[in-house]
Amino acid sequence: MIELEGVPELIDPVMICAFEGWNDAGDAASTAVGHLDREWKGEVFASLDAEDYYDFQVNRPTVALEGGVRKITWPTTRLSVVRADTGEKSRDLVLVRGIEPSMRWRSFCNEILGYAHELGVEMVVILGALLGDTPHTRPVPVSGVTSDPDLARSLDLEETRYEGPTGIVGVLQEACAHAGVPAVSLWAAVPHYVSQPPNPKATLALLNRLEDLITVRIPLGELTEDSRAWQLGVDQLAAEDSEVAEYVQSLEEARDTAELPEASGEAIAREFERYLRRRDGQPGPAGGHATESGGLAEGREGGTGGPGAPYLRDPSTGHGRPRKPSAKDEMAKDDAEDTGGDGDEAMDVDDVKEADDTKEADGAKGADDGQGAEDRDTEGQDASRRDEGRTDRGGSGDEGSGSDR
Fold first, then answer.
1. 338 and 268 in contact (C-beta within 8 Å)?
2. Helix/strand/coil (H, E, C) string of 252-305?
3. DSSP annotation of 54
4. Please, what sign has the CA dihedral across residues 290, 143, 208, 38?
5. Fewest Cβ atoms nearer than 10 Å: which of 75, 155, 314, 336?
């Protein structure tokens, strides 16, 4: 029996989980949960017993001095609760952050589900990140999957069809499904050629997708600026290596071609709604979103080297090749410039048709005029030849005819 002390009654609680290790490329998922914990000042109320789930030769404890006293921190999974209060809507988030366990995965999942049951959690969202063939210059792809067909339809998610090795994210999601707890996994794709943590662009993309899912605005803090710095740094590294630059360009072309069908009005409308929410929720320009088309309107990330490595920044030049606009960029630009309604759109179509008809008529008239001029030139040439023949003939008409022939 799990006993919770000091945890108040929660409002519409959602459990957000992330685990370091195999499911966490670039530390994007665990950093996202850590960001939520910092921004909303989470309070840890429980931690799992490290002895039950971790091999300390694989995940070693760390030692530090605090006030001259040595303290050992054991690898484990901790649970904290935060109140996501945006002024208009409040709900509580139960944050689960730890390391993928080394053993007894089923017991591990059952213990987490026990906390979810006691806290009245309505849904479990598990964050993950994987390595993929995706260019760093494009928005980070984030896929939302679930094992529940009803949940897939209601939240516009994909039903998971993956087959192969899985990690604790997949195991926990299936455990939720068997326990009757709605569960969703959000996966961010991280470029495999720049997989070192941190990856603020992937973290930003996960948070934006999570924001849409739980309908609570998430403060981004410095993530947008960190994403821009990361982007400039990777651009610079790619520009210095011709092979890498060529490879990135091939990934860009493949990505843009594959995403052409997705450049729909519905997708643009979703991005515009997110922009309006963020604009109304905080002063100044909208925060970065890494799932919007291309630039720092959605945020750009960066990050090379291990934890603590400096970002390669050059805000004045960036030393990077300019991003080629995608079809989605052009459509978004056209939609932004079009301020009319359906009537205006119909009128625009008529105007275009009328202009095309006028152009076609002018072209036909020009062709006729040109043909007439050509015929007149031909007639003039024939008359000239006849005059010349008459001059050369002299007195013999037969000789003149032979010359003409």
1. no
2. HHHHHHHHHHHCCHHHHHHHHHHHHHHHHHCCCCCCCCCCCCCCCCCCCCCCCC
3. -
4. negative
5. 336
| Of 276, 255, 277, the residue nearest 329 (C-alpha) | 255
Q: What are the distances in angstroms from CA 230 to CA 139, 224, 244, 286? A: 13, 10, 17, 19
The pLDDT tens digits along the chain (405 residues) read: 466 777 878 999 999 999 999 999 999 999 999 999 999 999 999 999 999 999 999 999 999 998 889 999 999 999 999 998 766 678 999 999 999 999 999 999 999 999 999 999 999 999 999 999 999 988 899 999 998 888 888 888 888 888 899 999 999 999 999 999 999 999 999 999 998 999 999 999 999 999 999 988 999 999 999 999 998 999 998 888 888 888 888 888 888 887 665 555 555 566 666 666 656 654 333 333 343 333 323 333 333 333 333 322 333 333 333 333 444 445 555 555 554 444 444 444 444 444 455 444 454 444 445 444 444 444 444 444 444 444 343 333 333 333 333
The b-or-e profile of 116-146 (16+ CB within 10 A means b, else e) is beebebebbbbbbbbebebbbbbbbbbebbb
- 3-state class of 384 per DSSP? helix
Could you give the CA distance from residue 347 to residue 364 in angstroms, rounded to a whole number? 26
From its phi and psi, is residue 266 left (phi > 0), alpha (psi between -120 and 50) or beta? Answer: alpha
CB 35, CB 223: distance < 8 Å = yes
Q: For residue 404, what is the enclosing H or E element?
A: helix 397-404
Angle at the Cα of 293 from the Cα atoms of 289 and 298, rounded to 5 degrees? 15
Read off the tokens for 156: 């516009």
Cα–Cα distance measured from residue 225 to residue 300, given in angstroms and rounded to the nearest whole number: 8
Omega prior to 198 cis, within 30 of 0 = yes
Kindly give, in sequence order, each residue whose CB lies less than 8 Å from that of residue 358, ignoring residues fewer than 6 positions away: none
